[in-house]
């Protein structure tokens, strides 16, 4: 059974940092990569980053490039942890963040982690105050 559990959210001031964790089980990187989505209040859920294997490649949407870093614990076994390090946070980064088992794809130059989405976790709330 595919399971994903997020942690690490919280309240932070603008310009601060957080590191989110995603504990994944029930699949390996040979089957799915891991992506991060977020959903801000009143907005649609959007994909923000993805990692295809234990050592990359990695993908980001333009709004988080240079500020967010996705990484894994370099385990290709069935069960691994993926991190999303978020620096220089902005109020517009406020959202519930979800990790997902998916396949990282790029279509027309844009990250697409919806197309082969397998499952996602329940999310962790990130609030950035101004």
Shape: globular
Total count of strands: 13
| Mean pLDDT over all positions | 93
Q: What structural category arises from helix and sheet content? A: mainly beta
Order of helices and strands: EEEEEEEEEEEEE
Biggest sheet features: 7 strands, mixed
Q: Give the DSSP E fraction (strand runs of 2 or more residues).
A: over 45%
Tally the helices: what do you get?
0
- Amino-to-carboxy terminus distance: 40 Å
Radius of gyration: 14 Å
Q: pLDDT below 50 for ≥5 consecutive residues: which ranges?
A: none
Please bin the fraction of helical residues.
Answer: under 10%
Question: Can you tell me about this structure?
Answer:
The model has no long low-confidence stretch (mean pLDDT 93). With 130 residues, the chain is an all-beta fold. It is built from no helices and 13 strands. Strands 2, 4, 5, 6, 9, 12 and 13 form a seven-stranded mixed sheet that branches. A four-stranded antiparallel sheet has the order 1-3-8-7, with no helix packed on it. Strands 10-11 form a two-stranded antiparallel sheet. A hairpin with a 2-residue loop joins strand 10 and strand 11.
